[in-house]
Amino acid sequence: MLGLAVMTVDRNRLVTSWNPGAERLLGYPPSEMLGRPLTLLIPTQRLPEIEGVLQEAFAGIHTEAQATQLIRKGGGPLDVSLTVTPIQDARQRPAGASLVAMAAGPDAAGPPAGHILADLRATFDNAPVGMAVVDREGRFVQVNRSLSMLLGYPPPELLAARVETFTNASDIGVERVYLDELLAGRIRSYRMEKRFSAAGGREVWVSLSATAIGETVQPDLILLQTEDLSGWKRTEQDLMHLAFHDGLTDLPNRSLLMDRLTQALARSGRRQSSVAVLFIDLDHFKNINDELGHDVGDQFLAEIGSRLRAATRAHDTVARLGGDEFVMLCEDVEDEETARAIGERVVRAVAAPLAFELGEATTTASVGIALATGSEDRPEVLVEHADRAMYRAKSFGGGRYELFNNERPSPAPRLGGVARDLRRAIEKGELRLVYQPQVELGSGRIAGVEALVRWQHPERGVLMPADFIPAAERTGLILELGRWVLTKAVAQAARWRDHSPLTVSVNVATQQLAQGDFGSQVASALSTSGLPPSGLRLEITESAVLDTVRLAPTWAALDILGVRLHVDDFGATPSALRHLKGLPVETVTIDRSVVAGLGTGSEDSAIVEAVIHLADRLHLQSMGEGVETREQALLLSSMGCTLGQGYYFAPPQTAAAVEELVGLQEP
């Protein structure tokens, strides 16, 4: 064998390291290859396939034993087996690739494994990824500095031990299955994620690639390459936390609450005690926002969350559903008197005044309590019963609690009144659309706008979507409202189309997507207005992405039409990522609560960068929402984010104002 060639390249395909084995295999000394393009070694007919492998490496994908050819100095092409491994920088961004080439065919026969180790030794010392050679018993034969630094142990200590010594006990069994297959010659390589137990008790997540060295069926030596995944795993945990917690108070959100309530009810069936759900709504909270501002209102909500946590036991749950609504889940509640005592404690905790720079804020709480009966209790029913009891407390003026009683009528929830007014608003033309620009971060050009609905209420003034969309969704009126928004937005975009290819994004609820004729509604709106499908984007939530099976006909219809999707809060639910394949998704958005943390030294920057990287790997655009400052815009752009939206660029505005902003004139 001519040698084992190990080389690394950067993202510009320039060679950054070159081991002695590469010189023996290909004939070029390091002085002739370092800093030179890798394409010098690639036959013309092989350029597409090797470029494809490199592109995958830059996207984080490992390629094992690719049969291809490289060019020898002064000679013809050489058949080789090429393994390509991604290299990432300290911030987990693609930085280059490591290439290991072994001669194939007649050139594969030659010196023993000891000669291979000599080839590897020089490259090991400078390789940016952790590398090692181990024997059949799993003993380290050679380790590099990167692996030593990763694990925190000096090379002599590693060389005196086996790989299993530093492997997390939970991963040993899984890896043993792969290793036995490789040692028996049934596979030539494997790749897995595993945990090393590093110095100081640290747990280090890595992506491990193991490749048999040499062409013998049962290899004597194995090459290990490790990529540090610790940063990404922390980011993944942060994303999971975001998916199940409220961004303002850090309390559990509805999804996590319902999961815990389901488990609590299952446990209560095996105990004598009961489960209590308390639905908590702040009385007249809107006055605090109006008089002291939304910033104070947010601080107030965060403080209320802290007070509610302090009023519960460690194993109870306090969740925020949104707005000024909280839910408390209490287990091991002995009887009604115990539940009433908890309700009284909550009322007192909320009523205490809070001092802010702009003044003192005080509110009260209406609290509804529902106790599980033990007979066919369902989480959603228990929350609904607590909600109804809360409205009864509110009907008495608030500042009190009420226990749910199925025999006692409760007042109709306020959403019913909002829904009736909303139906009238659609008929009387009280709704209007405003449009917020979406800007290309690289050029500053306005690429599109998001259509946002406003309600000009005759008594309450301008209402934002949060004031009436929940009512529309609970009553089914969202279907009529959504159709109205879609028709109006598409018609406006068609008028703009005569002057500029400005796209319009329309928010679509999952209930709309589930309609059997939603695709026909979109097609009709496009046909009537004359807007081409490329001028419309539909904004959907990750919950819609997860509902793949039920919504499959809708996705197919939209794909045929050529209408593309934006996915809101991308990455908040990691399990949704695998469902994106096959959907007509073009852009993913980064939630404003995370964008707000950019530049503040928080972990939000790492989360944003991870989401952008995921989008890049899926060949999707990314868009940061809620961009409020120049610093946020610059940071998003430097991370590779495609688009930005927020008050830094422009607030939501009328169609006429948008036309003026982009220099359009109505015909």
Report on this structure:
- The chain has 667 residues and is of the alpha+beta class.
- The protein folds into 3 domains: 4-235, PAS domain (Beta-Lactamase); 236-411, Alpha-Beta Plaits; 416-661, TIM Barrel (Alpha-Beta Barrel).
- Helix content is 40%, strand content 26%.
- The chain has 24 helices and 26 strands.
- An 8-stranded mixed β-barrel has the order 18-19-21-22-23-24-25-26, surrounded by 4 helices.
- Strand 14 (354-356) and strand 15 form a beta hairpin.
- Helix 10 (285-292) packs across helix 11, helix 14 (414-428) crosses helix 15 (465-475) and helix 18 packs parallel to helix 20.
- Mean pLDDT is 83; it is low at 109-114 and 409-416.
CATH topology of the largest domain: TIM Barrel
With strands numbered from the N-terminus, the spatial order across the biggest sheet is 18-19-21-22-23-24-25-26
Distance between the termini: 75 Å
Secondary structure category:
alpha+beta
Tally the beta strands: 26
For the record, the CATH architecture of the largest domain stands as Alpha-Beta Barrel
Number of helices, counting only DSSP H or I runs of 4 residues or more? 24
Oligomer: single chain
CATH homolog superfamily of the largest domain? EAL domain
The CATH C-level name of the largest domain is: Alpha Beta
Amount of beta strand? 25-35%
Given as residue ranges, the uncertain stretches (5+ residues, pLDDT < 50) are: 109-114, 409-416
Helix content: 40-55%
Tell me, rounded to a whole number, the average pLDDT.
83
Number of domains: 3
The gross shape turns out to be globular
**Using only CA atoms, what is the Rg?**
31 Å
Task: Profile the largest sheet.
Answer: 8 strands, mixed, barrel
